[in-house]
Amino acid sequence: MSLKFIFGPASTERRGALVDQLAQQMQADPNGQFFYIVPNHIKFSSEVDILTALKQRRHSEDKVFAASRIQVFSFSRLAWYFMKNTPYYQIPRIGTAGLNMVVYQIMADLADQLTIYRGELTQPGFVAQLVKQLLALKVGCVTAADLQQIADELDSDTDLAAKTHDLALIYTAFEQTMQGRYIENTDLLNALSDYLLQQDLSHTYFYIDGFSQLSAQENRLLLTLIQKATQVTLGLMLDRPYRQQLPEKQALFFHPGQLYHQLYQTARSLHVPILADLQVTEQRVTSDLQRLEAYWQHSTSGSRQLRPEALQNAKSIQIVQADTRQTEIRQVATKIRQMVALQGYRYQDFLVLTRHLDAYETILEPTFREFGIPAFDDLQHHMTDHPLVELINALFAVKQHYYRYQDMMRLLKTELLLPQVNGQPMANQAYRQAVDLTENMVLKYGFSGKQWLRKDDWQFYRFDDQDFGTQSTKDDDSSAQVNLIRHFVRDTLPPFFKKLDQAKNGQAAAQVLYNFLVEHGVVTQLQVWRDQALDQGNLAQAAEPEQTWQIFCTMLDEYVTILGSVSFQATDLLALFQVGFEGASYSQIPSTLDQVLISETGMVQTEMRKVVFMIGSTDQVMPDRIVNNQLLSDVDQEQLTPHLAEGAYLMDDALTQMASEPFLNYTAFLTAREQLIFTYPLADDGSSLKLSPYVERIMNHFQLVPQVAQTRPDITANKIAPFVGSKRSTLSHLIQVSRDAMAQKTQLPPIWLYVYRLLRQDGGYSALTERLLASLNYRNVPQKLRPEIVEALYGKTINTSISKLEEFYQNQYAYFLKYGLKLRERDIFELSPASAGEFYHMALDQLFKRVQAEGQQLAELSTTDVDRLIDSILLKMSTLPQFQILASSNRMAYLARQLTATIKQVAHALQHQGQQTKMTPLRTEVLFGHVGSTDGLAPLQFKLPHGRQVKVRGKIDRIDQMVLGNTRYLGIVDYKSGVRDFDFRDAYYGLALQMLTYLDAMMRNATDLTADTQLQTKPAGALYLHLQNPKLKLTEVLTKGFDDALLTKNKYQGFLLNDEPLLENLDHELAERTGSSKVYPLTKTNSGYSLKQSRLVTESELALLLTHDEELIQAAALAIFAGELKLNPVKWPNNQTALQYSPFKSIMQFDAMLPENNYRQLTALDRATVLAMLKAEQQQKEDK
């Protein structure tokens, strides 16, 4: 037995020295067995390096080299090697999920004895955190007995005493449960130490490499090897021996120095021979990197500041500044590509490091793929996002929340449970289409819960916009696809849930779950995914389904073993699965090919890489910000440490870990053999970032000038190297510089012309290059439709509503998308403003029809009668499909009550209005121009050139009448859910055509409306009524009285005909006084009815407005038939635009910064100006 130290700083060839001695000892002892121990995650690459080095030292020219007497292992693999055939090693192994189950059950059993942790069992994540703490205690060789003794020594009134008491109770039960029944990975090293003490290890040699500190268990194992093996050789990254005293805690080499000191002193106390140290001086890095090492050692020692110096090679250490992380990684990728192409490097010569890769996980892989750079991420990837995990979570969520929308879609979209069609799993594309349709229907009708299980099929009901809620025929094909999915759910899930409910214990439930997944093809589908990935050559992806299923089966086995006899609780099983999958990760396929390695600075790396990129070198992570997330805080650990037995320890506190940051980064710096390149972004997600103080020190000492990574090439610069990477990435920059050349109206620089020619000559990129360059001439201007397309979309006749034509004048292209292509948003099960409006309209229509059917007027009824009628009408309406939403939830029931209150308030307002005027309702919900309607009026119809025509349809909410002498006045009332008034400016521009069009249609159909040809018919006006249940101010009630205040709030808005007989009879009260009407937009002064508020129009003015309205209708139709598709959204003087609430913005891609995209800016026009303009236009026509 003997111990030997081989050490040297990071810049030295320590592994080379270890392999030299290994080769010598293998030659000196032909019967010897040799073990080379390294950290687990670099085991494979280390084995390749060591065997390659041995081959070189033997001067073997054979292509294949093997050495049977040398084993490259991790500590855990060493345990397997020696103990694989022992009874102990046959004890079942337990994983993270199993440990959580054990601790969960222990906490449940000890609930009455626990103090501070008594109520924590139900807290999410607590059990997992407790397991981590217990394992940390085991790794530190702190036993349950040690913890119990410490608990007895502490002051019982402190929180720490309560923590220690509970931990000791749980830990004791944990050890008793585990003893002889299960093996956890932390048990193996202690067992291996005990086993090796009984073995003959003569002619056995151990080499330990890549460790700067050891756990208590690893330390114990190493002491066993030192005592039993022929020789143990320990390689350390260390500046000098620390035989007699420990290094200072703040020293750069504190941890490896501490390890050296402890092993040296322990070996002496055990009388183990300590062979002469070998201090390695052979350098493995360039002279500039040696200078960096010397500076770093000096600067972290607290010595006086060194004078700045210069590098021999400016490329040895570089700093690159980028505006964003995306630019940063593109710059890294470009450099790698160029160094491989031009400088003879291979991809395996590069290592990309950062403190935490999560900030780059969505950037690195796609960027490297774009640049054609093969890369291997050696971090563990967790299984939590795998579809199998999602399926299990969704299954239990569906059961818990009873077929809730979110859970059902999660379940169906895993694509692991597939319906059978003709005895085969449904084809993926057909399945996805059916699920999409199902989701649409679920969203539209709010299906959930028992509706998934009902016997009656779901049916598509479509409501035509122009029929105002009239139900159309069902879509049989869509319904069939949806019901295929629903039947599958109904026939599959309830039997499974029933069996699960009948499971008496955990074992029975586990069997039900396993059988369900197997019988319904989940395993088969996982195998299909595996085979598809293999066919595509993606070995890593191919391994994921099998590994995830294996982990699931292992967790299920552990659950049955540990909790199989316990009463089954679905929530407990799901929680244990979730914790288990969170701790499970995929086995990585080793980086055997020529690939760039991507890793984190906290992980040990092999020292074979020539160039290291340290990305994300900011003050946020270099040094890192350490937070202790253990149950035992830093303060707790500080108080417990003096009570620990010799050889036991707790994890480093945050301060100790912070003190290790210089060493951790030092090892990363010196991993490179030739070049070290720091990169950092200036911003991330809107937050500014700064250069790491570590890098800033290096920059100042070596007088480095940071390079600025350009986002895009400068057309005036001839240096294009930073923008030449892969063909695809270079093409992107060619597009950028070509766009700039076009914008500046200059020629493309010769060097970029050369790049263009190369890409044009490349068979794989020629077509793409031409297509992308052609896009530079693209202008975001829709092209006119060809006549045949217009014919196919609209035919010879445009049947339209006036609201559609208003949208045409708001934005022609939006009209085309909505009514030409018939694009629309997905229907959602909600009470939209349109639905509420339909509810109001239908209720008021039914109210007036019921009153007229009884030969009465609303004004003649009592308030009680009105409420009775409303209740009867709404009860009948509640059974209609479009209003069933109002009974779907408590929230909707509340909204239904609000709608009812509003309808009753409006009805009372109409009742009071009727008592103050001679105007009476003639008809309600009057249709004109509706095809197939038997009681509607004729449309507004206009003949157009080339045999075309436009027919305008609509529905007038209410037509009121007043008969005075031989004149009948007809007026229209339009119900609105919000405040609305007639705007002369919008009417002029075609944005408010509805009231004028309705008035025109009413007057054209006046005879049909009244069935009277004796009386002269005049228009009375066009009015809006805001349907509301208004809030009244106290001052309004006190000043006007409640009824009058309420009546004023429900006042009509719009315009009236300036006709004195009409005005005199509109409001009984106003006929006897001056002032403003409580009912109509009308003001009376001593000199007559006021025009000040612009509410009155003369017959000639109204004729001008109606003529202009008809001209706008015809102009819109002509433009539509001409294929006009202008992207011309209007912009009102108040800066509101037609795009503000448009669902088509992502399609239109309107950008006001583009020269071709401009708003149609409206001019502010008042009533007088509009009427003057119309008169002028009429005069011009007459003059022609």
TrEMBL record:
Cofactor requirement: Mg(2+)
Matches recorded under Pfam families: ADDB_N, PDDEXK_1
Organism: Loigolactobacillus coryniformis subsp. coryniformis CECT 5711
Function: The heterodimer acts as both an ATP-dependent DNA helicase and an ATP-dependent, dual-direction single-stranded exonuclease. Recognizes the chi site generating a DNA molecule suitable for the initiation of homologous recombination. This subunit has 5' -> 3' nuclease activity but not helicase activity.
Keyword hit for rRNA-binding: no
PANTHER family named in the record: RECBCD ENZYME SUBUNIT RECC
Root EC class: hydrolase
Subunit composition and interactions: Heterodimer of AddA and RexB.
Record GO terms (molecular function): 5'-3' exonuclease activity; ATP binding; double-stranded DNA binding; helicase activity; hydrolase activity, acting on acid anhydrides
Protein name: ATP-dependent helicase/deoxyribonuclease subunit B
Segment forming the signal sequence: none
GO biological process: double-strand break repair via homologous recombination
Alphabetic keyword roster: ATP-binding, DNA damage, DNA repair, DNA-binding, Exonuclease, Helicase, Hydrolase, Nuclease, Nucleotide-binding
Domain ATP-dependent helicase/deoxyribonuclease subunit B N-terminal intervals: 5-293
Domain PD-(D/E)XK endonuclease-like: 800-1059
Record-listed E.C. numbers: 3.1.-.-
Further comment found in the protein's record: Despite having helicase-like domains, this subunit does not have helicase activity.
Stated family: Belongs to the helicase family. AddB/RexB type 2 subfamily.
